[in-house]
Amino acid sequence: MARRTLTTTATFAATAALLLTACGGGDDSSSSDDIKGADTGSSSPSASASASSPSEVKRPEITLPANFQLTFEDWTSSDPVEQAVLNDAKEQLRAGYAAITANEPDGGEALAFYDTESGLSQDRQWIKTYTDKDLTVFGKLPAFDPKVTMSDSKTAASLSYCTDESKAYSKNRKTGKVEGNPPGTDPEIFYIASLAKNKQGIWQNVSIRSERGGCSR
């Protein structure tokens, strides 16, 4: 299972999360089941310097079910700007999975908060690959090895990270059928996300791309 991603283009300007490949899903090629999105465009609020501190902004509450453990290993940085990127990227990823488990195909309030307009459009496509089939997710999904690269202006960033889907699964809400990755499939997914800082100081997801494999633990 995992964060299913959708292919749109092969460009870099990507998310992450939301992200993941589908738990039962397909081969390792760049099919619609493998890439969450690589659209470089963004019609979100301008990525200008924050007019107010992010701590002053009321953030949405995100709740995941107890049977789905999305964890973040070593998502820390001594640089406060990089840490802000990591914090918001974590919440964006949590918001995406919360929408799946809550059966919200539009992504819900939290995902709209952490996504640009283009990012939200991509994430809704990803979420609907679950909700349209009455699927939810459960198990354990660690996200690890995050690396942040800042733009010179400090208002845009790229974030790479990996996930391990070996203990994450999808389940049909009606039939209870459980699926995981097919035998022999590499359970680790490498993501590259593109983020922009909005006027409120929130680091929002612009787009993301993924590739199965390429991770090391």
Characterization of this structure:
This protein is an alpha+beta fold. The protein has a domain at 65-212: Nuclear Transport Factor 2, Chain: A. 20% of the residues lie in helices and 27% in strands. It contains 3 helices and 7 strands; from the N terminus they run E-H-H-H-E-E-E-E-E-E. Strands 1, 2, 3, 4, 5, 6 and 7 form a 7-stranded mixed sheet that branches. A hairpin with a 5-residue loop joins strand 6 and strand 7. The model is unreliable at 4-52 (pLDDT under 50).
Question: If you compute it from the alpha carbons, what radius of gyration comes out, rounded to the nearest whole angstrom?
Answer: 16 Å
Order of helices and strands: EHHHEEEEEE
Derived structural class:
alpha+beta
Outline the low-pLDDT stretches.
4-52
Which overall shape is indicated by the principal axes computed on the Cα atoms?
globular
Given the structure, what is the number of helices?
3
Question: For the record, what CATH class of one domain applies?
Answer: Alpha Beta
- The chain-level mean pLDDT equals 81
CATH structural fold name of one domain: Nuclear Transport Factor 2, Chain: A
- Helix percent reads 10-25%
Per CATH, which architecture of one domain? Roll
Total E-strand runs? 7
- What does the main sheet amount to? 7 strands, mixed
The separation of the N and C termini measures 19 Å
**Approximately how much beta-strand content do the residues carry?**
25-35%
